[in-house]
Specification:
This protein is α+β, with helices and mostly antiparallel strands. β8 and β9 (274-275) form a beta hairpin. The N and C termini lie far apart (71 Å).
């Protein structure tokens, strides 16, 4: 059997769409595991670790240029043991070596290319490498030859050097807990950092490329709520508006059919030219941000964007079984006859195409005016000139201004736009669709369950609650190992595998808490408590506080580390801290709050010195340090009066509030079950502020008054 045949068979047996993309490479790929590790030791060859994900544009480029290149493959097969990792399946492996890459080069990204000793310790790394020397970068071939030569001539020095990084990371994870910064000190520093990098014209923070990073928006809304700082709220609202108007947002959306949602990030400062992959975790978090913007501002613009995201996920990203798929690719074929893919081909339009499809001069003129369409193409910020002559839809004129220009009413303009989007949606359906990464991840499904639960509470659409329930049921049926009592991370093609990481537990527990508050069905809260306890057993550092990314019994990871950065996804420690505080309020059990404070102290140094790295944890700290409100609902959930009481709570942005429906099941998990009155002749609500409870009320106006008395009502709109 040839090396190529072995390689084909090895990756062809995997479930990851990313690994399967490489199953026909001439590189003799291994998966992360003992087979690769033992072979590296037996043959005394360094490991080449390549990490990416299936919808990553530059991962595709490096595959075409290098991993399909026979000469490069021969170098890899002769001098290295080459290992492929899907970062979405093994985020702890990705995070461990990304720390190395960022600390040694000052930057990160995918594809990630890391060279390891036989003990899996890193000694050299980078991101994308061209096959030959160009772009001011050393060619991949040059690097392979150089590293192979150094390993042969100076292996001991490489091994000695590689020891230092793991020692440094181990020391970081084992740091003694530190005192928390003073009242609002870390929050003020984070806000100052955001103000420094805020783009007043286009929203967002920093220069190109621009990433949504919803955790920053969460913090800004939260900080504005607790301090009354309107500037914080304005930064978040403006950023969300500019993103929604930009090309990062797919404007071709039809309710009940699909389209819409957000791409991963923008290559320019204007949110215009994205890398076109769409990720479930981005869209889940952004849906919550737009819902919170609607709660805070009352502007239907934000409501519509949240609905657009849900339409995209429910139509295009939901499996028949109810779980949510992971992502859609950046690249696709321009036509069904093409043999090579191009980035953004599914989303780009020439002016001639648009005129032909819209087939109405006035409609075309209006559409062109609103979305900045030009005959030459409007993607002038395209860094590599790949989109010449093409247009990326970006809303450049509001409906009101358009109506004035064309002598029509706003209603007429909206009607024309709705018809135009339907025509373009149908035309786009004829194009080859980007590849779907159809694996289902527990963690990202947890984020989407949270979003849909909040969507139901704020927008009152039952389909959102139904979808959240189906997804939660899917995770517990397909991704929970009943024999081992463990969550699994990934499901695809009928197969569930990979021991859950701490983010799987944290994000899914958060989703269950949110689903409980949306449905008020006790099973979800009880399951959240059980999984939280399991998370403590498998991941918690009882000596120094905080959760490790990897379970205690996983020996494939050379070093267990703790994540203390809220990036594109929030860190599991930040989400877990807020989970614990909410569970403490929901059950009255103080031990949950004590553990949350231990997490904060484990990150005390980062919070004091670089609080902008942990904006989601600052949200949790605000919950801990400010007044908390517990609303206890008693009575029949199906009564119209109960719906009116719930609407008072759900319509408002109330980050310090938890909601309980008094029931026999809920009383069994309370520290003081006698405080839960499970029966009432008519629906009523009791507001408890910290340890003081006000008298129950049946009138929605009185409930609103009591919430204001708790000083937890939103600031004036």
């Amino acid at each position: 059997m040839t090396d190529t045949q072995v390689q084909k068979n090895r990756l062809a047996g995997e479930k990851s769409p990313y690994l399967l993309q490489h199953a026909l490479n001439p590189v003799n790929w291994f998966v992360w595991g003992e087979e690769a590790f033992e072979k590296a030791k037996h043959e005394n060859l360094p490991l080449f670790l390549s990490v990416g994900y299936s919808t990553c544009h530059w991962c595709h480029v490096m595959e075409r240029e290098s991993f399909e290149n026979i000469e490069i493959a021969e170098l890899l097969n002769r001098y290295f043991i080459s290992v492929k990792v899907d970062r979405e399946e093994l985020p702890d492996i990705d995070r461990l070596y990304m720390n190395y890459l960022q600390s040694t080069t000052g930057k990160g990204g995918w594809p990630m290319s890391i060279w390891l000793t036989t003990d899996r310790k890193p000694f050299y790394g980078g991101s994308y490498f061209p096959p030959e020397d160009r772009y001011g970068l050393p060619g991949f071939k040059t690097i392979l030859v150089s590293i192979a030569g150094l390993w042969k001539s100076n292996e001991k020095k490489i091994i000695d050097t590689s020891d230092t990084f793991f020692s440094y990371l181990d020391e970081l994870s084992s740091k003694s807990p530190a005192e928390l910064p003073g009242e609002n000190e870390a929050q003020t520093k984070c806000l100052q950092w955001l103000e420094t990098y805020y783009d007043e014209e286009f929203g967002g923070f920093g220069a190109a490329p621009k990433f949504p990073r919803p955790v920053l928006l969460n913090f800004l809304f939260n900080q504005a709520y607790y301090t009354g700082n309107k500037d914080a709220r304005i930064m978040a609202l403006n950023t969300l508006r500019k993103m929604a108007e930009g090309g990062i947002h797919d404007h071709i959306s039809v309710p009940g059919k699909g389209g819409g949602g957000f791409a991963r990030y923008s290559t320019d400062a204007h949110w215009h030219v994205p890398h076109f992959e769409k990720m479930l975790y981005d869209n889940a978090q952004l849906a919550i941000s737009y819902l919170e913007a609607f709660q805070c501002r009352g502007d239907n613009f934000y409501r519509a964007v949240a609905q657009d995201i849900f339409n995209y996920v429910l139509c295009d990203m939901t499996s028949p079984e109810g779980g949510f798929y992971s992502a859609e690719d950046a690249d696709s074929f321009e036509t069904h006859d093409d043999i090579s893919k191009k980035e953004g081909a599914f989303y780009l339009w020439s002016a001639a195409e648009l005129r032909e499809i819209l087939d109405d001069t006035i409609s075309s003129e209006i559409f062109f005016f609103i979305y900045g369409i030009s005959n030459e193409g409007n993607a002038q910020y395209d860094p590599h000139g790949e989109f010449i002559g093409k247009n990326i839809l970006i809303q450049q004129a509001p409906v009101e201004k358009t109506a004035e220009k064309f002598g029509k009413t706003a209603q007429e303009i909206n009607s024309i736009l709705e018809k135009s989007r339907k025509l373009l949606y149908e035309a786009r359906r004829e194009r080859p669709r980007p590849a779907l990464d159809d694996k289902i991840l527990t963690s990202w499904n947890g984020l989407m369950i949270s979003a849909l639960s909040k969507g139901y509470r704020v927008l009152h659409h039952s389909q959102y609650l139904d979808a959240a329930k189906r997804a939660a049921g899917f995770v517990m049926e397909k991704l929970y190992d009943q024999q081992k009592c463990r969550l699994l991370r990934r499901y695809r093609d009928g197969n569930a595998a990979i021991a859950g990481k701490t983010e799987d537990y944290a994000f899914f527990v958060q989703g269950l808490i949110d689903l409980y508050e949306a449905s008020l069905e006790s099973q979800y809260l009880i399951t959240a408590l059980e999984l939280n306890e399991l998370q403590n057993t498998l991941f918690y550092d009882n000596t120094h506080g905080g959760y490790y990314s990897t379970p205690i019994d996983d020996n494939s990871v050379p070093l267990r580390i703790k994540e203390n950065y809220d990036g594109a996804e929030p860190s599991a420690n930040s989400i877990s801290a807020l989970n614990l505080l909410r569970l403490s309020e929901l059950t009255g059990k103080e031990e949950f709050a004590i553990r949350a404070e231990e997490i904060f102290r484990s990150c005390g140094t980062t919070l004091a010195e670089q609080s902008h790295a942990l904006p989601q944890m600052l949200v949790a700290i605000n919950f801990m340090r400010n007044k908390k409100c517990r609303v206890i609902l008693t009575g029949d959930l199906l009564e119209p009066e109960m719906a009116q009481l719930r609407k008072v709570i759900d319509d408002r942005y109330l980050p310090g509030t938890v909601v309980i429906h008094a029931s026999n099941e809920i009383s069994t998990i309370q520290r003081y079950p006698e405080t839960i009155q499970t029966r009432a002749e008519h629906p009523q609500a009791s507001v408890c502020i910290d340890q003081t409870c006000l008298l129950p009320v049946m009138d929605p106006v009185m409930l609103a008054t009591n919430i204001y008395r708790a000083r937890l009502a939103p600031y004036d709109r």
